[in-house]
Specification:
By secondary structure, this protein is an alpha/beta fold. It has 10 helices and 19 strands. The protein has helices spanning 37-41, 96-102, 113-123, 137-146, 153-157, 181-189, 203-207, 227-236, 247-255, 343-355; strands at residues 2-7, 12-19, 25-31, 49-53, 57-58, 77-79, 82-83, 106-109, 126-131, 163-165, 171-176, 193-198, 213-216, 241-245, 260-276, 282-293, 303-309, 315-320, 325-328. A hairpin with a 5-residue loop joins strand 17 (303-309) and strand 18. The chain is globular and about 60 Å long. The mean pLDDT is 97. Pathway: Pyrimidine metabolism; UMP biosynthesis via de novo pathway; (S)-dihydroorotate from bicarbonate: step 1/3; Amino-acid biosynthesis; L-arginine biosynthesis; carbamoyl phosphate from bicarbonate: step 1/1.
Length: 359
């Protein structure tokens, strides 16, 4: 069946529909990863977005039970050049098309993803919709231009209740802003006794569990949309070890007085080079974010820059000068992506060992 991809600048791309027929409007972004479409589709940081893969061959190894990053995907749509209808992999349990139908995600393929990517690189990410071929294009474009971006994505994807993931090691409270299961896996692998709490849990409740550390997860949207969480993090500082990833990194920075800004087209892919400013070592990282911390704004805070992106010089990591608090913009849980930076979870555990601090 024919389907349209309509952009807010009036561009229209005709392709073939797959997945769900529940067509949606969202922010169109691109991901440069060559593999990992299952992890990308189930990464809740994409809530409110339509994801386009720049690599053309998608669906060729199917979907399996092990590579999920969330139970319920929150992505609003999926765009590919080619769609493989007959996957060939020993772990494959269903096709990409069947997966999208089951999770109510619409898709479009047989469009010029290279041309669309060039447009987004030149003009920046923009609102878009997946539509039927008989859609009134002018009305659709007006709707896109008048539609505001979502501001409640974190509330949509965060856990609604507190629950434990028991173990015998350090007690860690995981603030769930849309946490990838890879974070849970890495912490559990190191024996951490986890308590997962919703994004808006207050500091008093978190400290009542006497955590050895607090993990601030990744998540979708603008970090300034969750001021309640920023204040909670501010109250937690100095009372426990804190490690932030992606959105968690941005929230730590805001809590310390730094500023964030929206990137033109974001960092989304599995091969982004980042330099550790202390060691000079370059790591290849997995990234997915549309906002970044303003490096210049760190000068008026107690934070110092620890990592920097080699592609555009943006902030990729900070640490507090006095307190056991650090964060990175990239994803050390590395799903899907390289595993260069998984050692940061070991650093988190070592800091908890050193501090021995029970709130």
């Amino acid at each position: 069946m024919e389907r349209l991809l309509i952009l807010e600048d009036g561009s229209v791309y005709r392709g073939q529909g797959f997945g769900s027929d529940d067509l949606k409007t969202g922010e169109l972004v691109f991901n440069t990863s060559m593999t990992g479409y299952q992890e990308i589709l189930t990464d809740n940081s994409y809530c409110g977005q339509i994801v386009m893969m720049t690599y053309p061959l998608i669906g060729n190894y199917g979907i399996n039970r092990d590579d999920y990053e969330s139970i319920e995907p929150a992505v609003f749509g999926f765009v590919t050049r080619d769609l493989c209808q007959s996957p060939n992999n020993w772990r494959s349990q269903e096709t990409l098309d069947d997966f999208l139908k089951a999770h109510n995600i619409p898709g479009i393929y047989d469009v010029d993803t290279r041309a669309i990517t060039r447009k987004l690189r030149n003009k920046g990410t923009m609102r878009a919709m997946l539509a039927n071929p008989d859609t009134d294009i002018e009305a659709a474009v007006r709707q896109l231009q008048e539609t505001d971006y979502l501001h409640d994505q974190v509330a949509r994807v965060s856990s609604s209740k507190i629950f434990p993931i028991p173990n015998r090691g350090h007690k860690v409270v995981l603030m769930d802003f849309g946490a990838k299961l890879g974070i849970v896996r890495e912490l559990s692998r190191r024996g951490c006794d986890l308590i997962v709490v919703p994004w808006d849990t207050d500091a008093q409740t978190i400290l009542s569990y006497h955590p050895d550390g607090v993990m601030l997860s990744n998540g979708p949207g603008d970090p300034e949309d969750v001021p309640q969480a920023i204040e909670t993090i501010r109250q937690l500082m100095g009372k426990t070890v804190i490690f932030g990833i992606c959105l968690g990194h941005q929230l730590i920075s805001l809590a310390c007085g730094a500023k964030t800004y929206k990137l033109k087209f974001g960092h989304r892919g599995a091969n982004h080079p980042v330099v550790d400013l202390e060691t000079g070592k370059v790591d290849i990282t997995s990234q997915n974010h549309g906002f970044a911390v303003d490096i210049d704004s760190l000068a008026d805070t107690e934070l110092e820059l620890t990592h920097k992106a080699l592609n555009d010089g943006s902030c990729e990591g900070v640490r507090h000068k006095e307190l056991p608090v650090f964060s990175v913009q990239f994803h050390p849980e590395a799903s899907a992506g390289p595993e260069d930076t998984a050692y940061l979870f070991d650093k988190f555990v070592a800091m908890m060992d050193k501090e021995g601090r029970h709130a």
